[in-house]
Amino acid sequence: MDIKNKVALVTGGGTGIGRATSLALAERGAIVAVNYSRSKAEAEETVQLIHDKGGRAVAVQADVSRDPEVRAMAEQVRRQFGTIDLLVNNASITRHIPFDDLEGATEQIWDELYGVNVKGMFYCARAVAPYMKKQGLGAIVNLGSIAGQTGLGSSLPYAVSKAAVHGLTKSLARALAPMIRVNCVVPGASKPGGGPAWRRR
Predict the structure, then answer these.
(1) 79: Cβ–Cβ under 8 A, 6 or more apart, which residues?
(2) Whose C-alpha in 2, 117, 120, 177 is 20 to 30 A from the C-alpha of 171?
(3) Structure confidence at residue 198 as a pLDDT band (50, 70, 90)
(4) Mean confidence (pLDDT) of the chain
């Protein structure tokens, strides 16, 4: 897909993998909506980096685990740029818990991780799908993790949530075909300074 002048929404786009993705899309000519939940300064810095290179970008706040905020964010981007052509579902979180500490994987932690990592990706896909269908073409990329394949990682709930992302991708691909392509990328471990997607949103 030629993405010049296409509108891309990148969740968790202000830091780490999200920032790198936002910058790469802008370099190819896309208009980038950089989503953040708490990392406002980082998102605005990412936008400024894009502007400095002559690109177009805007920072948009929303907690992806909250469906009303996601729908409002999508509508804000549509109002400003006319549509949404691309979605990169990058926002995710983790908690560091030893795998043998089953009691440490509390109900609250399960709910938090599934709320952002799984339900959040579904909410974002659902919110942008009508705009993509209206255009007749769209693309969604979900950020999975090697943890979702190996069962290892920073915590048991995180690994399971990323396995669920892989399953969600397959189901969304069926649900949204043929007009919207849905794929998943599966990064390995990355340095905190260089930015795993789960560090910040």
Answers:
(1) none
(2) 2
(3) very low
(4) 94
Beta bridge partners of 34: 10, 59
> What is residue 2's predicted lDDT score, i.e. its pLDDT?
87
Residue 1, Cβ neighbours under 10 Å: how many?
Answer: 10
Cα–Cα dist 96/176, whole Å: 34
The whole-model pTM stands at 0.92
* Beta-bridge mates of residue 183: 141
Whole-Å CA distances, 75 to 6, 24, 69, 70, 128? 16, 24, 10, 9, 9
Rounded to an integer, what distance in angstroms lies between the CA atom of residue 148 and that of residue 155? 11
Catalytic (active-site) positions: 158
Q: Comparing C-alpha atoms, which of 4, 192, 191, 187 is closest to residue 90? A: 187
Domains of the chain and CATH, by start: 7-185 (3.40.50.720)
**Closest of 52, 1, 60, 47 to residue 183, by C-alpha:** 1
CA distance 132 to 104: 41
Question: Which tokens go with 198?
Answer: 């789960």
Q: What are φ and ψ of residue 188, in 5° steps? A: -90, -165
Residue 115 tokens, joined = 């709320």
CB 93 within 8 A of CB 153: no
